[in-house]
Amino acid sequence: MQTVNYDRILKHGINFLPTLENKERGVSFERLYSYEQQKHRIHFTGILHLPDSTSRTNTIPLYPLQKVELAGALAKGGFAVKQFYGNFAGEPWSEETPATIAVAVADDGKEGENK
Fold this sequence. Notes:
By secondary structure, the chain is mainly β. The protein has 2 helices and 7 strands, in the order βαββββαββ.
């Protein structure tokens, strides 16, 4: 499972992520964050810029799921976390990595048994 590293977002008060671009197709996607501390929600605004110079904007609330909460939710759901990574290159997770990637398996109490 992969999500944005919300530990990093909250720690540093990050209010945007790098713009994604496809120059060949003339499109780009801006990602803006606004943290609402009282509700513990991030308002995510995505702005899609199209080749005809128009844009589409949408804002939705996100729950900033942090690593410790993710580990607890996976355990409660019957999964054992094997490893956390900070990106798809397999680097270890830290509060400074861009992603939170959890590798988890069903925890059926038969770990190590051939299936």
